[in-house]
Design goal:
Blueprint: H1 12-67, H2 69-78, H3 85-97, E1 103-107, E2 113-115, E3 118-129, H4 131-143, E4 148-156, E5 165-175
Antiparallel strand pairs: 1-3, 2-3, 3-5, 4-5
């Protein structure tokens, strides 16, 4: 007796069904992968569109900056920076020397104080002068190229209204924001 091996018999139909099932599973996996890739491509297209928009904004801002460069520099000169505050101090000192020999001035704070979105340095000036000198000083302060704000003026006059008085002027000097230019 010969021994017959038990070979599993696959009918053509079962092989085709198995093949169809395998192809269907592969198709479903392929469609799932393709749909996630399609979403990624859509997201990348949106990001690219956003980047093009940002590039246009940057180009427009650069053009505006260049076209208004002189005006921006003019406005910036009104607000001293940490490097140009010495020019302001020299201007104040020259102004005071032209009015009296007896004066002092000091900053009340070594760092700028905040007033909403603006920065300023508080300055107190004390000088001995008559009414004509005070008037001239105030006119000069008003015509300076710097943005300042006088917050108070007080005077002690032992010789009366027309005599020499000790005048204290408290003012704010608005500075660039940020004050330090590195």
């Amino acid at each position: 007796m010969t021994m017959e091996k038990n070979k599993p018999k696959f009918s053509r139909q079962s092989v085709l069904v198995t093949l169809v099932v395998i192809l269907t599973v592969v198709n479903v996996l392929f469609i799932t992968l393709i749909s996630s890739e399609a979403k990624t491509v859509q997201l990348l297209k949106k990001e690219l569109t956003g980047l093009y928009g940002q590039e246009k904004i940057i180009a427009t801002a650069s053009e505006l900056s260049q076209s208004y460069k002189d005006e921006i520099e003019l406005i910036s000169a009104v607000f001293p920076s940490e490097q140009t505050i010495t020019v302001f101090i020299q201007t104040i000192e020259d102004l005071l020397k032209g009015i009296t020999n007896e004066y002092t001035f000091r900053f009340s704070s070594p760092i700028p104080l905040r007033e909403q979105d603006k920065l300023y340095l508080p300055l107190t000036m004390t000088l001995k002068t008559d009414m004509a000198g005070l008037t001239r000083l105030l006119k000069e302060l008003e015509s300076m190229r710097y943005m300042t704000h006088i917050t108070s003026i007080s005077s002690r006059s032992p010789d009366g209204f027309t005599g020499v008085s000790e005048v204290t002027i408290v003012m704010k000097i608005y500075v660039q924001n940020p004050f330090t230019n590195i």
